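Recap from last week: sequence in, structure out.
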Amino acid sequence: MLETIETTTGPKPVFSVIWLHGLGADGHDFAPVVPELVRRDWPALRFVFPHAPVMPVTINNGYAMRAWYDIVSLDFSKPREDAAGVRRAINEVDALVARERDRGVPANRILLAGFSQGGAITLAAGLRREQPFAGLIALSTYLPLAAETAAEATPKGLATPLFMAHGTQDPVVPLAAGQKSADALKALGMDATLRRYPMPHSVHAEEIRDLGDWMTARFAVA
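Predicted C-alpha cells:
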C-alpha cells in the first residue's frame, strides 16, 4: 500500500477524493487545494493524497524521483509511457480504492483525480473499472496506453463523468496532446470535453471554481 497523507472535511466521510500528483512531486503537492475547493454545502469528504514510488525516469537521465511510471520519450506523437509501469500504478490505485471501501466509502462515492502524470493514471484506471467511480478529474494530462484503450475500457468506465482541463500555454504536456486525448475518448463514446484555461502546466483559480461546480453535481447524483 502506498503511503498517503489525508485530510477530512467532517466526521464520517461519505465521499472520498483520491488525488494523484505529477512527476517529481509528492502527496503534499495538491493538499493546499482543499481549502480553496471545498464548499460548505458539501457532504463530509476524505481527501487521500498518495505518494508515488521513487524510480529512475528515463527522460530525466535516469534520475530517481517520485513517479507513477517511467517516461521514455518526450515525443507525444508516439507511446512514451512504460506500459508495465502504468498497469502497476493502476493496481496501486485499486488497493487505495479497496481501503476506502473497507472504510465505508464504495467506488461509486469516490472521485479519482490526478494532475499531469497522475492524471494519466486517473484516466487509465478509471476507464478500466467494472465498478465505476463517481467521477474522474484529469488535469493537464493525456491518455496513456491509447492504442489499448478501446479494447480494455469498460462500458461503465466510459460512462463515468469526466472533468478534463488543460492550460493553453502548457510547455510540459502540450495542449494538442490533451485535445487529442479528449477526442480519442469522445470517439469511444465518452462525454469528454477539454476545458481550457490561460495557464502553463499548473492550476488556475477559474479551473478550481469550475471543478467545484462539477463536484457539486457529482455529490448530488451519487
